[in-house]
Amino acid sequence: EGQQKVVDGFQSRWGFPQAIGAIDGSHIPIIKPCHCPSDYYNRKGFYSIIVQGLVDHTGKFLDAYIGWPGKCHDARVFQNSSLYKKGIKGSLLPCLTRKLGSVDVPLVILGDAAYPLLSWLMKPYIETPSSPDDIKLYNYRQSRARMVVENSFGRLKGRWRILLKRLDCHLDNVPSIVSACITLHNMCEKFNDHWSPDWVCQSPTQPVSQPSNTQQLPSSSAAIIRDAIKLYFQHN
């Protein structure tokens, strides 16, 4: 029942069928580690650890994987997470399909270009100025629905502003601090605690750009599922 509520939420808010969550990574600034500091130095020029977050349609975190060095690509973090391992085994999501055209579309997670295309994880098509309109429409619709995870990280850091600046504590303690903030964030969201847009300020932890993940070829089933959703958007 709870999972169907999430699916219905993505459908009613953004018109995206069969979405069960949106995933992204965010960086938490830390002091320079004593061990392998270069591994933690990210593309934006500061030391950080990565938080991989999966959120529902309301912005509550369903899963958080915390602690990988800031230099790592989001795809590498993802492929080492329990979420990925469960997804590959087929034990992550319930078998709730919806027929779109002639395709039985399963529940899917929405990711950006940094993630691999899987039968249970959708990413945008590669887009150029000359791409056809159906690809541009799909990418727009997915980006619009996936924005909920970026907003969630913004609200998380806006409420718990310790995450906006460098955490001057031992590296081993950082995951516990971040996890506690996420738990409190979910409680605030659940009980509609007061939120002010003014709490989101210019942060030193602006999104760290990630190159597109082109190393892993999509499975044929994943491509078919994404094409079916793309076709659905032509009529809905």
UniProtKB/TrEMBL annotation:
Predominant subcellular localization, coarse grouping: nucleus
DDE Tnp4 domain ranges (all copies): 23-186
Keywords in alphabetical order: Hydrolase, Metal-binding, Nuclease, Nucleus
GO cellular component: nucleus
Domain of life: Eukaryota
Cofactor dependence: a divalent metal cation
Entries under InterPro entries matching the protein: HARBI1-like, HARBI1_dom
Family: Belongs to the HARBI1 family.
Protein name per its UniProtKB record: DDE Tnp4 domain-containing protein
Organism of origin: Amphimedon queenslandica
